[in-house]
Amino acid sequence: MTVNSPAAAPWLDHYAHAGPWEQHFAPLSLPEMFEQIAVVHPDRPLVDFFGRQYSYRVLHAEARAFAAWLQRSGVMPGDRVGLFLPNVPIYVSAYYGASLAGATLVNFSPLYTAQELTAQVLDSGARLLVTLNSAALLPTALTVLDSSPLERLVVGALGEMLPLSKRVLLALLGRKAITAVPQRRDVLPWRQCLSAEAPQAVPIDPLHDLALLQYTGGTTGTPKGAMLTHQNLTANARQVAAIDPHAGDRDMILGVLPLFHVFANTCVLNRTVANGGCIAMLPRFEAGQALKTLARVRATAMPAVPTMFQALLDHPAIAKTDFSSLRICISGGAPLSLPLKARFEAASGARVVEGYGLTESAGVVSTNPYEGEEREGTIGQPLPATRVRLLDREDPSQDAAAGVPGELAVQGPQIMQGYWQRPEAAATAFAERPDGRWLRTGDVATIDAGGYIRIVDRIKDMIAVGGFKVFPSQVEAMLLQHPAVKEALVIGVPEARLGEVPRAYATLNADAEATGEELHSWLNARIGKHERVDSVVLRESLPKTMVGKLDRKALREELGI
To answer: Diameter of the chain by CA atoms?
Structure first.
């Protein structure tokens, strides 16, 4: 089964019968996209950082100054420049500045250990790293500088980015928050890396030149660098902007997702720039601060992962937070349970729509519509210019039989070129068909007559119970319907007769009372015999990835399974 987005998405009727995607998403580089908006709306705020606003004019000028310094320092087109940063204003300047110089960006999580950061610096061949004078970041970056081929660190000063009132607070915190920048020739303050000269023009081929190496989360093995071109990134930003019925209206997005992750890179940074909006930026997610900022800036949109919505609901300030400006919340990164969706919509009055994407798709493949019919439990319909099909799970050279779940495969302008220095991994990531190559997502799905996609589960997470396939997400969804359950993970555990059986791990809502035995009986009465869990294990917490997704792989490793 193959679905083309214009036919499947009724809210995108203006794309129907329009021909190839180039007619709507012509090749465009990141610097071109940024400059187009900065020229038309120079005085609009692009970033709000704890009340201090940075305009498009200011950040575009800073990006050009950084690009010129990179060129003077010998950084050539195609060289890799790493960003080891939380959500701070210089992320924007460094991101677009390195792109303007023709460099390829590499996002590094600020939660990485020195060992993890070293491994990805070596894999990517990054020459330079932009970081912050944070006590949580700079010591790690210095360790990597001294133990890898990395040539330089460029270090931003957090105090210089904050409004005056916050600088005073930062000074009081002292060493807890910031650390001194050592006097070394290979460690340079950010301000010294802004050239007064204009950058040299660098020809960029948006369709083929790499803009970003975005490393996968590593949930199915060693992280791999997805090679994303300028067009992959700008097309996906424009695809996301195209489905927003409020495009052109006031656009203030709450930037609580980490920009180093592909979800935020597209749905917070690039999508907002493409739309001429503003990002209320927070360096890390803390529920109380997020609620306070949302009300202060009167945010109109908030992308988040499900665990963030849960944390906001758990915070006592939610009852007195003014959500009247909030139009839409976009949930991604992990399945959104229907009870959580309903509770947050009731508390905020804003619509929560679930979307879907991958690192390899530059962020987003599909979403439920912001207005009109949404189908709960689905990941919505494909974005404009995106085609999806279901492949046979045993033979990806064939389509799945009608009515049978299959592996979701995707085609579109946002799909990566391959994996950095891993041609063998790239070869297995795509299915070659007569109409081109299709990205294999590894997710089992169904597609209904309206083009709405329902993810059944990850192929690698399926549990084999005596010859039957059990999808853990379906068991988790049922367990989450119990009013006492806050979070749930289901994994397969070894069993002598059946090979393996499902076992559930759960946390409870505050003040909820339930035992594992009670939940075990309740759950097994509502699911198929082959899906029944051998037990429900209650825990204080469940492992999560750096972005806040519940992490089955980490749970298995913790349990030695």
So the answer is: 72
Tell the CATH topology of 2-20+386-457: Luciferase; domain 3 (2.30.38)
Helices 30-40 and 230-242: crossing angle in degrees, nearest 10, is: 50
CA end-to-end span of the chain: 36
Among residues 463, 462, 468, which one has the least CA distance to residue 444? Answer: 462
| Residue 263 CB neighbour total at 10 angstroms | 24
Amino acid letter, 403: G
Q: What angle do CA 294, 299, 300 make, to 5 degrees?
A: 145
Percent of the chain with pLDDT over 90: 74
Tens of pLDDT, residues 539-552: 999 998 877 888 88
Chain mean pLDDT for the chain = 91
What confidence category does residue 217 fall into, taking pLDDT thresholds of 50, 70 and 90?
low
**Residue 57: exposed, middle, or buried by beta-carbon count in 10 A (0-12, 13-18, 19+)?**
middle
Query: Tell me: domain 56-203, CATH 3.40.30.10, correct?
Result: no
Question: Are the C-beta atoms of residues 314 and 510 closer than 8 Å to each other?
Answer: yes
Enumerate the domain spans of the chain.
Answer: 2-20+386-457, 56-203, 462-559
Residue 405: Cβ within 10 Å count:
20
> Which distant-in-sequence residues (6+ apart) come within 8 Å of 559 by Cβ?
491, 493
On whether the CB atoms of residues 466 and 493 are closer than 8 A, the answer is no
* DSSP assignment string, 98-157: HHHTTPEEEE--TT--HHHHHHHHHHHT--EEEEESBTTTHHHHHHHHHHSS--EEEEE-
Tell me the CATH architecture of domain 462-559: 2-Layer Sandwich (3.30)
pLDDT score recorded for residue 220: 44
Task: Judge whether 33 and 237 are in contact, CB under 8 Å.
Answer: yes
Look up tokens 């849960």; give the residue.
310
Q: Is the pLDDT of residue 160 over 90?
A: yes
Helical segments of 388-524, H only = 423-429, 472-479, 516-524
User: Given its phi and psi angles, is residue 220 left (phi above 0), alpha (psi -120 to 50 degrees) or beta?
Assistant: alpha
Strand runs (DSSP E) across 378-434, as ranges?
Answer: 381-382, 387-391, 406-411, 418-419, 430-433
